[in-house]
């Protein structure tokens, strides 16, 4: 897609795990009220029946607005200090097993009502992770992309050479098909959080700063992804509501991963 195309925005909410709490419910309600699609990225090994049932009934009631996608396997939950689940020195077979176990759980919980979209916890991966994802039949990888001059040069070079990594950095193919694999990359480029300060606390960007990130991304892509983590946003729901209203009033349209699958 060319940057001259009408810009569209998608929202991805990571770390849907064991708790059905105020932040998860209230954030979702904001999106439903404004009829804006939201993708919930589920940790298959950590989600509880309570959250599964809530998501299933949401998907039944709002099939176009709610996407359910896979966020790793267990988010390396047993080692919270190590900010990595996939990548590093993990080999293909080991990662394939975890991705497949997660996928099997997703089918068990949601049958056909989830989308074959994968997001890596902490955004870390290696070539073995990508091969495993492709072999498990995922259609979209959603990671992160920056549009700084340095990042654009790295991505341009890496894509031209068909590489997964260049200068030790991952090459982002957003928004397009990854060389050598059977999936596309549709990545997020806007974050609400400046800095994570605790399990549920984080410094947030203000509305102007978030709009600035969106405008900066708009110069380089017509598919702008905004990343959320509901558990941090309990005190920022008013700002998120303002953001959604502002984006709607300024002519952006909103899409789900399902609509971006090609
Ligand atoms: Zn995560």
UniProtKB/TrEMBL annotation:
<dbReference type="Pfam" id="PF10096">
    <property type="entry name" value="DUF2334"/>
</dbReference>
<dbReference type="InterPro" id="IPR018763">
    <property type="entry name" value="DUF2334"/>
</dbReference>
<protein>
    <submittedName>
        <fullName>Polysaccharide deacetylase</fullName>
    </submittedName>
</protein>
<dbReference type="InterPro" id="IPR011330">
    <property type="entry name" value="Glyco_hydro/deAcase_b/a-brl"/>
</dbReference>
<dbReference type="GO" id="GO:0005975">
    <property type="term" value="P:carbohydrate metabolic process"/>
</dbReference>
